[in-house]
Amino acid sequence: MVEAKKPQAPDLRDVERALVIMAHPDDPDFSCAGTAIQMSRQGIEVTYMILTNGDKGNHNPLVTRNQLILMRKEEQRAAADLCGVKQVIFMDEEDGFLRPTFELRKRVCREIRRIRPQLIICPSPERYLVGDGYINHPDHRNAGLVALEAIFPAADNPMFYPDMADEGYLPHKISQLYVTGYDDPTVEIDVSADLDTKIQAILAHKSQFDQPAEMEKWLRERWGDEQADGSRRYFERFKAMRFDRRDEEEESD
Ligand SMILES: [Zn+2]
C-alpha cells in the first residue's frame, strides 16, 4: 500500500481574496467555515457563492417555498457574519436540480472575473459515495463541476466571453484551488480554536435542524480526530492545487 503523504499547512501568503463556491446554504459552514474564519481574521476578503436557492431543504410543512428561500438566505448571511465573511452571492438555481450548464458556467465565470480571487474553494465533482452510508448530493458534485469548468478553461481565457470585457470584467487566473471532499487531502487547517464559531455558523441554519443540540453534540464528539491523550482536534482538509500566474495578468486594479 502506498502511504499517503501527510497534508501540509496552507500557504495563504499570496491570497487577498478568496471565493467559496458551494451548492447549498450551509455547505460552506460544514465544509470550510473554520478556514473562512481564519482567512477573514488575517484580512483576506472572503466571498461565499451559493449556487442554489435551497428550496428543498424543508422540515416544516407550514413554511412555503418562497418563505424557505428567504429564510435560507437570511440564515446563510447570519452564518457568514459570524465568520467575518462580508459578501454572500446567491445564484438562485433550483435546489436538487443543479446542472453544470453553459449558462451557469458563464454566470460563475463573470463573478470570478469581477471578484478576482487568488483562491477558490469548491466541492469535489468526483465524490459519489461517502463512507458506507451516504450518497453524496448530486448538487454538490455539480457545484464542483461548474466551479472547475468556470475556472478552466474559461475564466482566464480572453477568447471565452469577450463580451464581458465591455462590462469591465477582464480574464482572471486564480493562483490556488482548494477542493473539499477528497480522501487524500494535501492541505489541512486546524480549526480547533474556532470550533465554537464554526458550530454557531452551522446552527445559524435554523431551518435545517430540528434538534440543534444533537447536531452540536455530533460535531463535537464525532467530527475531528482523537489525539493520543484522548482530546480531539478539528481539521478542514482540501485537495490543493497551485497555478503559475502569467506576468501579463498581474492585476492593475
Ligand atoms: Zn449541501
Task: Please render the helix and strand layout as text.
Elements: E1 17-22, H1 27-41, E2 45-52, H2 65-82, E3 87-93, H3 102-115, E4 119-123, E5 129-130, E6 134-135, H4 138-155, E7 176-180, E8 187-190, H5 195-203, H6 212-222, E9 225-226, E10 232-233, E11 235-242
Parallel strand pairs: 1-2, 1-4, 2-3, 4-7
Antiparallel strand pairs: 5-6, 7-11, 8-11, 9-10
Bound molecules: zinc ion.
Summarize the structure in short.
34% of the residues lie in helices and 20% in strands. The chain has 253 residues and is an alpha/beta fold.
Describe this structure in words.
The longest helix is centred in the N-terminal third of the chain and has 18 residues. The chain has six helices and eleven strands. It is α/β, with parallel strands linked by helices and 253 residues long. Strands 3-2-1-4-7-11-8 form a seven-stranded mixed β-sheet, sandwiched between helices. A two-stranded antiparallel sheet has the order 5-6. The protein has a two-stranded antiparallel sheet with strand order 9-10. Helices cover 34% and strands 20% of the residues. Zinc ion binds next to loops.
